[in-house]
Amino acid sequence: MKKVKRDFKSDFSNLEKKFEEYKKLAKENLEGWQRAKADYENLKKRSAKEFEETVKAANEQLIVDLLPVVDNFNNALKHVPEDQKEGDWIKGILFIKRQMEDILTSQNVVPIESVGKKFDPKLHEAVGRAKGKSEKSKKEKIVEEIQRGYMLNGKVVRAAKVKVS
């Protein structure tokens, strides 16, 4: 039988090279997986935030759509004849109006106080001037509220329409 001479140094060197190649490949795969995992986590966070913002926007739109209903209750109640103000039907309407206002309050909707306050263009929309008042009044005070304004979570969702002095 013939003996085969092996070059163990060469074999070992080749194995070391292969080992380094596989080690490098494993590192690249691990880094790629870590990047993919981080991307996925960021996507989850971004998706959750977008969903939250969508719900918030839909909620805001629903509230804005309900504000004219509250206005209509207030306007209707202003025109109830004196002799009918204590009637059960009017009491029921007042209860429904209060219920609507309670729902808005529970959703952090706050009416903007206007009459007697200084005009603020961030909160108020001037729709006229009070009769007999100077055009050059430096401190424009609100003398009449035409339509109530509202804020939702500190953000104006409808400016108050007012008359100023």
Q: What's the SSE pattern?
A: HHEEEEEE
> What's the total helix number?
2
Percent of residues in beta strands?
15-25%
* Percent range of helical residues: 40-55%
What composes the largest sheet? 3 strands, antiparallel
Radius of gyration: 36 Å
- Strand order across the largest sheet: 1-4-5
The CATH architecture term of the largest domain is: Alpha-Beta Complex
Structural class: alpha+beta
Low-confidence parts lasting 5 or more residues at pLDDT below 50? none
Mean pLDDT: 91
Write down the CATH class of the largest domain: Alpha Beta
The count of domains is 2
What is the overall shape?
Answer: rod-shaped
Q: What gap, in angstroms, lies between the N and C termini? A: 119 Å
Tell me how many strands there are: 6
Describe this structure in words.
This protein has 165 residues and is an alpha+beta fold. The protein has two domains: 7-107, Hemagglutinin Ectodomain, Chain B (Alpha-Beta Complex); 109-165, Roll (Nucleotide Exchange Factor Grpe, Chain A, domain 2), CATH 2.30.22.10. The protein has two helices and six strands. The strands form two sheets. It has a three-stranded antiparallel sheet. Strands 2-6-3 form a three-stranded mixed sheet, with no helix packed on it. It is rod-shaped and about 125 Å long. It starts with 7 loop residues before the first helix and ends with a strand. The mean pLDDT is 91.
